[in-house]
Each structure stands twice: as C-alpha cells, then as structure tokens.
Specification:
The complex is a heterodimer of chains A (110) and B (116). Chain A is mainly beta. Chain A has strands spanning 4-6, 11-14, 19-25, 32-38, 45-50, 54-58, 61-66, 71-76, 85-92, 98-100, 104-109. The chains are: A mainly beta (110), B mainly beta (116). At the A-B interface, β4, β5, β9 and β10 of A face β4, β5 and β10 of B.
Chain lengths: 110, 116
C-alpha cells in the first residue's frame, strides 16, 4: 500500500462544473497537507495547504481535511480549461519530508 | 524574486558515467529537498537538508547517489556509475523551514536526466 493514494483518473468535467479530487494517507502522525498542480512538462506548484481538520477556501479552491478518516480532498468550483493538469496530494509529518501521491489527471472540457 | 534554479535543464549521459546536478534554492530557505519523478508518477523523495546537514537521506536508492550542501545554500546531487533506470526528472525544492507545520515546497524546473 502506498503511503499516499490518489485516483489516477483521468477525471473529466465540463467547464463550469465542480471537480472533486480525493487523497488518502496511511501515516496517522501526518500534520501538514498540500495540493500541488503540475502542468504537463512543468514542475509542481502549490495550490493549497491545510493543517487542521475542516475546510479551507481560497478563491475557487477548497481543501478539506479529515484526520480521523485520514482523508484530504480538493474541490475546484467553476472549473476552467486552464485547470486541466495533474493534481498531486502531498503529506508530511514533523520529520520534514513530504510524501506525494501519483496524482490525478484532470481535464476540463470547454 | 528569484525562484529555485536547477542546472542543467537537460543532461544526456552514457551508462556508467558520473553526473552532477546543481540546485540553487530561494534565498533564505533553510530546507532543501531532492526528488525524482518518472512519467506518470508523483515525485519520489530522495534527500532533505536542513542547513548544511542531511536531515533525512532515507530516499537515496543506493550508494551510487550522494548529495551535499556544504554552505547551506547550493546543493549538488551526485550520481556515480549511472544506469538506464536512473533516467528521470530530478526535482529540487526549497522551503522556509522543515519540521512541524512544514512550509510548502517551492520547486525548480527540474533536470531531465537521460542515461543511454
């Protein structure tokens, strides 16, 4: 079992819809949770960080964390074609390193 | 301001050769990370520096891989006796601090290593 699991997709949604991306993790002492976006041929860039249970909203993006269920998600509202990318979930403990999932590929169709 | 800089952007080498990959982190970032990424996979952790010392090198696959950060800024990843399986994109990232409540990672553009 991988430490960080994501559905590989591809996930396809129409423009304007809500895209829902999910991630589960195995290490119960994980404390920091991140979503990165990676365009094809580019490096990952941070979208959201979340450290405590509940929801965190930033513009069209909402991250949700449930430590009891070891689950973190990312919602993208009003999806745009420019949101088409691979979304990487990353989890870290206070030991320092971040562990990444293999990503979910999202396609937003005009 | 300047982001994380990695050189070279591309490196093609023959099997058995030695390569060095360089990373210049964001100024003031004390934590520096090396990852490698193969097609269709997420970044795979290799090593993490806090200042000059390697805080966690548990991801280095074998003793052909070595990394240094002698002055707590620029880091070099060194791969000896390269193998075709070492071909990947090597990503460097830096953050303000490691440890609890980790700061997010800021990635460089990566070095694409191809071993022929």
């Amino acid at each position: 079992q991988k430490e960080v699991e994501q559905n590989s997709g591809p996930l396809s949604v129409p423009e304007g819809a809500i895209a829902s991306l999910n991630c589960t993790y195995s290490d119960r002492v994980s404390q920091s949770f991140f979503w990165y976006r990676q365009y094809s041929g580019k490096s990952p860039e941070l979208i959201m960080s979340i450290y405590s249970n509940g929801d965190k909203e930033d513009g069209r993006f909402t991250a949700q964390l449930n430590k009891a269920s070891q689950y973190v998600s990312l919602l993208i509202r009003d999806s745009q074609p420019s949101d088409s990318a691979t979304y990487l979930c990353a989890v870290s403990t206070n030991a320092g390193k971040s562990t990444f999932g293999d990503g979910t590929t999202l396609t937003v169709k005009p | 301001g300047a982001g994380v800089s990695q050189t070279p952007s591309n490196k093609v080498t023959e099997k058995g050769k030695y390569v060095e990959l360089r990373c210049d982190p964001i100024s003031g970032h004390t934590a520096l990370y090396w990852y490698r990424q193969s097609l269709g996979q997420g970044p795979e952790f290799l090593i993490y520096f806090q200042g000059t010392g390697a805080a966690d090198d548990s991801g280095l696959p074998n003793d052909r891989f070595f990394a240094v950060r002698p002055e707590g800024s620029v880091s070099t990843l060194k791969i000896q006796r390269t193998e075709r399986g070492d071909s990947a994109v090597y990503l460097c990232a830096s953050s303000l601090a490691g440890g609890a409540n980790n700061s997010p990672l800021h990635f460089g553009n990566g070095t694409r290593l191809t071993v022929t």
